[in-house]
Design goal:
Elements lengths: L2 H31 E5 L7 E2 L8 E8 L3 E7 L1 E2 L7 E9 L4 E8 L9 E10 L4 E12 L6 E5 L1 E4 L2 E4 L9 E2 L2 E2 L3 E2 L1 E8 L1 H4 L1 H24 L5 H11 L1 H15 L8 H22 L6 H22 L7 H4 L8 H27 L12 H24 L3 H14 L13 H8 L2 H15 L5 H25 L8
Helix pairs in contact: 1-3, 5-9, 6-7, 6-9, 7-9, 7-10, 7-13, 9-10, 10-13, 10-14, 13-14
């Protein structure tokens, strides 16, 4: 391996890093600076009564976030399309007018939450009190309009009665009702990470430069760091790696009539079957259930395939291992790269379904490589661990078949996490690495936005830590492989 090659790899790595952090900031600037919040709302009990021209609804509420962006109400149109104008006025505790918004009643749908957005976010004090006033300015024809209110909140253990008094109850034409308006407060809090993004990313870049310089100097003096050793192996055995990847890919579709087309068809057919079965049960509240379902299927299939192929990476190559010296970690690596090729083909139908269902390309789509790289890293760590265990304990493959099935159902693929009512169980779900990776992909494709900074951190930790542990376990035991093959 020549010095020119090492410098070239280091240079490209740094260029990709600095280009990536610039692109990520351009797409994720808002999510890195602000975190959107939404308060709980009371459960719908009944309507406040039919609205007429000049009628007024008043509801006092408090804001526990740093900024107020708007409010969400739930109208009732009695199954009709209302025609007319509604005025939404928000005042502070001193009676000062904060916002005055005209709402076209034709935009309101029966029993569907409606967001009343402020022209610009308002800076608030902690638990500051505001008043929402809804005024019916005009009502055309036989239009009917009202709004839901209630006096209980849905909790994990069922409906819990909510206390209210004269200052918090809803008023219709100055007459108090027994409950509160079904009102959700849309707010926003600042995140410190956005203010220090360039400092943090710049410091990481400097550390990379220092590490590369130290690694190059050690290589010149005859020593090797982990990165240099890896580059040396890849450079020396790149032909073997490419042949192993081609062999695994060809073996997968050997004697198959459709061949590589199954990489397209398999996730699509699974999505169609599961969509028919689960769409009426779990699709409620999901903005785009086909993409939600297919993204989970594609990502989990990659993980499952990578581990299923990696588990036999050492035992199935025993004839090579016992006769020719090759760094043994190359075998699980080649299996993971083969699975990555299949993932590339599987992403095509996912993107097609995404576009067909109306989710056109948005800037956030450029973030898609990040969760894929994290999932690849995590899957390789699992492959190193499983392939090592398989050498010493042949029942590993049967145990993994059971565990992978449990893992599949423990990951929200065809159902949503909203059905989980236990807070402890929900926290356990969030510790699932596949949940975090799939959540990241869905945020990009369905919501068209970058996840919050903590989700980047979760993905990095849940991929790097298992990889380090799995690789360490592999390297610690690789010298014993020869005695058990």
């Amino acid at each position: 391996m020549e010095e020119k090659f090492i410098k070239k790899v280091f240079g490209i790595t740094l260029l990709v890093y600095f280009a990536s952090i610039c692109l990520v900031y351009l797409v994720s600037s808002k999510q890195f600076h602000y975190q959107e919040t939404q308060s709980d709302t009371v459960s719908q009990s009944q309507v406040v009564g039919e609205f007429a021209e000049g009628d007024t609804i008043k509801q006092t509420f408090t804001v526990d976030s740093q900024y107020l962006e708007g409010v969400t109400v739930t109208p009732a149109t009695y199954g009709k399309t209302a025609e007319g104008m509604l005025e939404a006025k928000i005042t502070d505790a001193n009676g000062k007018n904060i916002a005055d918004i005209d709402v076209d009643m034709s935009e309101l749908s029966d029993n569907q939450p409606y967001d009343i957005k402020l022209p610009e976010k308002i800076k608030t004090d902690n638990n500051e009190s505001y008043t929402l006033e809804l005024i019916c300015k005009s009502l055309d024809g036989d239009s009917q309009i009202s709004f839901y209110y209630g006096n209980s909140i849905k909790m994990a253990k069922g409906e819990i009665s909510k206390s209210y008094d004269d200052s918090t109850r809803v008023y219709v034409n100055n007459e108090g009702l027994e409950g509160e308006l079904c009102l959700s407060i849309d707010g926003m809090n600042t995140i410190w990470f956005g203010n220090y993004y360039w400092i943090i990313m710049g410091a990481i870049g400097i550390l990379l430069i220092v590490y590369f310089v130290v690694s190059l100097n050690k290589w010149k003096s005859g020593k090797q760091t982990v990165v240099i050793a890896f580059l040396d192996s890849v450079s020396h055995y790149k032909f073997l790696i490419s042949q192993l990847v081609k062999r695994d890919f060809k073996t997968k579709y050997k004697r198959s009539v459709l061949g590589v087309c199954w990489s397209f068809l398999n996730p699509l057919l699974m999505m169609l079957v599961q969509y028919v079965v689960f769409s009426t049960i779990f699709s409620s509240g999901v903005a785009n259930y086909p993409v939600y379902l297919l993204s989970g299927i594609v990502m989990f299939n990659f993980f499952n395939e990578c581990c299923a192929m990696g588990i036999s990476a050492i035992t199935s190559n025993s004839s090579l291992i016992t006769k020719v010296y090759v760094p043994k970690y190359i075998y699980p690596l080649s299996r993971a790269m083969s699975s990555l090729v299949n993932l590339g083909f599987s992403l095509i139908p996912l993107l097609i379904v995404t576009f067909v269902t109306g989710l056109w390309p948005r800037p956030a789509f450029i973030l898609l490589p990040f969760p894929i790289i994290c999932m690849m890293t995590f899957s390789m760590g699992m492959s190193y661990f499983l392939s090592t265990s398989m050498v010493f304990f042949k029942d590993t493959q049967f145990i993994w078949n059971v565990l992978s099935t449990v893992w599949l159902y423990a990951t929200p693929i065809f159902y949503t996490e909203n059905i989980i009512t236990s807070p402890m169980l929900l926290k356990a779900f969030h510790c699932n690495p596949m949940y975090q990776f799939i959540y990241f992909v869905r945020s990009i494709l369905i919501d068209g936005v970058s996840p919050s900074p903590q989700h980047y951190l979760y993905c990095i930790l849940l991929s790097v830590v298992p990889f380090i542990l799995g690789f360490w376990f592999f390297k610690k035991n690789e010298d014993k492989f020869i005695f058990n093959l």
